[in-house]
Amino acid sequence: MIRVVKIGGNVIDDSLALERFCKDFASLDGPRVLVHGGGALGSRMQERLGIEPVRIEGRRVTDAETLQVVTMVYAGWCNKKIASLLQAEGCPAAGFSGCDGNIICAARRAPLEIGGKAVDFGYVGDVGKDSVNTRVLLGLISMGLVPVLSPINHDGCGNLLNTNADTVASAVASALGAELTVCFEKPGVLRDVSDSGSVIPALDPVSYRALKEEGRIADGMVPKLDNAFRSLREGTVRVTIKQASDLLDPGAGTVISL
Amino acid sequence: MIRVVKIGGNVIDDSLALERFCKDFASLDGPRVLVHGGGALGSRMQERLGIEPVRIEGRRVTDAETLQVVTMVYAGWCNKKIASLLQAEGCPAAGFSGCDGNIICAARRAPLEIGGKAVDFGYVGDVGKDSVNTRVLLGLISMGLVPVLSPINHDGCGNLLNTNADTVASAVASALGAELTVCFEKPGVLRDVSDSGSVIPALDPVSYRALKEEGRIADGMVPKLDNAFRSLREGTVRVTIKQASDLLDPGAGTVISL
């Protein structure tokens, strides 16, 4: 079975953590895909360039200048740094963005009605299972390559689009019928957010609903888990949420299933 | 036969010229590889970030900060923009840098003795025919993909290295035994640099030496032509130097042969 692993900013921003993760990921066996997010370098670069980040209702608006910066940072520096670190560990990594081989063709997000007016989120791409070109992705994997995907996609009309990396990872995992490991900053989904020892080992839709009603799962964890359950309904075999440093520990983290 | 085409900054910096070039390149038949340089965006980005460009003896020194900028610009923005434009024209392009699939493993340039002291050019990679992983490159071409290569390579030890794009194109063409088309700002090698109608249709080592002795070929044209002749000696079948806008005209430009 193919394994899709997603890492976020907390790994990418910490060069030692990134090196350790790459060593661990390289030591995994079998066909696999790595999906990475952006991290703080994108915002830092924007700040240094004097580009004011625009957020509406907590969501980043990606104007043309911001798109250029995130493409440079995510598809350029992060993607190539990760590929070179994995190569140094003997992992046959190859970095891609969605435009490459048309691996992921996204739909530019339509303006949303917020507070009575239409808000255009700019160069933001929505992706789902059907956006993923499994023929090309499987072809690359058959060649023995380990695809490393940045969250920059395209619309098929010559425009690049920025996509949430969790969504990319879910879409790729469901399209490939893969196992998905989402790495984040905590050791798993916690029963008590202030106690890192309170990892919930397994979650299904029933226990998830109960924990949400008790208020134990809230805030940023809700979209992450909604995303995980959607991915499972669309073909992903198993989703595990864990810390990147626990990648090689099969018992670590929270296993999400239907 | 595989065709390798190289474009430089004059095409990349002009969005209309780039779109026109992508349309022409997409209309070519057969297996092909595109190699692109950087263009002015790299220097402009460095300037906006307040990074002082360092040059020694006319050569850019690539320190860690400069490497990050050129990786962002060349491997990120330029590479992905070109791949997305080609995809929009129906060309199955896929952007790569040397680290991806270990396509090009470069040797970090050793310090050079200049004016009695050793000068370290930083993260600069030298490549030759043997640096090119033809197995992976031919595998990608067999999949029907059209590789688009940025001049950012790696050293196999986790470091990215900046390489001259003309050298990358020559190395790739000789490793693949390909035909090489080098696009630049003039319609070919000129007998009189001030007369764009004075294109020399063909050059071989004998006529090249004679024109150099007459002073008709000088300055930036010399390393370009030395590079072309080296590439031919190492396996490239034919080198044509022409304007990007003449890509589809088989009679345009200067054909270099041994």
Could you describe the 3D structure shown?
2 copies of one chain form a homodimer. Chain A has one domain (3-256): Acetylglutamate kinase-like (Carbamate kinase, 3-Layer(aba) Sandwich), CATH 3.40.1160. In chain A, strands 5-10-2-1-13-15-16-14 form an 8-stranded mixed beta sheet, with helices on both faces. A two-stranded antiparallel ribbon of chain A has the order 3-4. In chain A, helix 2 (15-27) crosses helix 4. The first copy, chain A, is an alpha/beta fold. The first copy, chain A, has helices at residues 9-12, 15-27, 40-48, 64-88, 134-142, 165-176, 205-213, 221-233, and strands spanning 3-7, 32-36, 54-56, 59-61, 93-96, 107-108, 112-114, 117-119, 125-126, 146-149, 152-154, 160-162, 179-184, 202-203, 238-243, 254-256. The longest helix of chain A has 25 residues, at 64-88. Chain A is globular and about 45 Å long. In chain A, a hairpin with a 2-residue loop joins strand 7 (112-114) and strand 8 (117-119). The first copy, chain A, has 8 helices and 16 strands. The model of chain A has no long low-confidence stretch (mean pLDDT 94). The first copy, chain A, is 36% helix and 22% strand. Chains A and B meet through helix 4, strand 5 and helix 5 of A and helix 4, strand 5 and helix 5 of B.
